[in-house]
């Protein structure tokens, strides 16, 4: 695309100007009062996968919306060769979609933490049984929740790690070389903490306070 390329939608009032200059890409969107046209076009890209547990209230006592996604991760969660999707939600649940092939997904599975808004996800085999488990951070509860994979698409609530207020980002890896997958957790008010995996349960190993 050169600097004179202009793409126009068939909807009035929307102009997309893409101008590539070296390594710099400028994108200008001009939307008229009929801005809903833009969202109508976006909806045609593909089907929307609903998240959040529909059996839970979608708002709190103040009328604020408390459903919707906050993080997403991909992994083989039911043991087949297809990558599945896990979504951390504002309502304290993790929504899992199992791929069924052809770009399609089966009905959602909702995993409840019993806590508040969730953020970072880490998918890894924490128990050493060859199945991919789920860890998710709950920053406003100061916890990390673990769901252990029980085989073909089922999960059990496992250990709940005490972290700190603001712990929201997770990563997994064998950081001490013992063959078990550990967790590192990061977030405001503390820094980074390494939780060592000891036979499927986690203990705080290193706390890097004021990391930066």
How would a textbook summarize the main sheet?
A: 4 strands, antiparallel
The outline comes out as globular
How many helices in DSSP terms? 1
The end-to-end span amounts to 40 Å
Residues in helices, as a percent range? under 10%
Count all strands and give the number.
17
Mean pLDDT: 77
SSE string = EEEHEEEEEEEEEEEEEE
Q: What is the percentage of strand-forming residues?
A: over 45%
Give the C-alpha Rg.
21 Å
Low-confidence stretches: 1-45
Strand order of the largest sheet: 4-5-6-9
Specify the structural class: mainly beta
Labels describing this entry:
four-stranded antiparallel beta sheet, 17 strands, mainly beta, 4% helix, globular, 212 residues, 1 helix, disordered N terminus
Please render the helix and strand layout as text.
Layout: E1 6-8, E2 14-21, E3 24-31, H1 36-43, E4 69-75, E5 84-89, E6 93-97, E7 99-101, E8 104-105, E9 109-112, E10 121-124, E11 133-138, E12 143-151, E13 154-162, E14 167-173, E15 182-187, E16 191-198, E17 201-209
Antiparallel strand pairs: 1-2, 2-3, 4-5, 5-6, 6-9, 7-8, 10-11, 11-12, 12-13, 14-15, 15-16, 16-17
């Amino acid at each position: 695309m050169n600097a004179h390329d202009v793409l126009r939608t068939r909807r009035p009032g929307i102009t997309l100007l893409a101008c590539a200059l070296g390594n710099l890409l400028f994108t200008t969107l001009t939307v008229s009062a009929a801005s809903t046209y833009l969202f109508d076009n976006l909806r045609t890209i593909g089907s929307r996968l609903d998240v959040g547990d529909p059996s839970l209230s979608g708002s709190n006592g103040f009328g604020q919306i408390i459903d919707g996604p906050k993080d997403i991760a991909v992994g083989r969660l039911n043991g087949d060769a297809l990558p599945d999707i896990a979504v951390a939600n504002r309502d304290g649940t993790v929504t899992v979609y199992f791929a069924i092939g052809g770009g399609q997904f089966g009905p959602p599975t909702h995993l409840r933490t019993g806590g508040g808004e969730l953020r970072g996800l880490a998918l890894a085999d924490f128990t050493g049984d060859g199945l991919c488990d789920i860890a998710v951070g709950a920053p406003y509860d100061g916890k990390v929740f673990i769901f252990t994979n029980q085989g073909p698409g089922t999960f059990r609530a496992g250990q709940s790690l005490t972290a700190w207020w603001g712990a929201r980002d997770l990563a997994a890896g064998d950081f001490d070389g013992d063959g078990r997958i550990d967790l590192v957790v990061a977030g405001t008010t503390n820094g980074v903490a390494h939780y060592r995996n000891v036979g499927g349960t986690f203990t705080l190993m290193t706390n890097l306070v004021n990391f930066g």
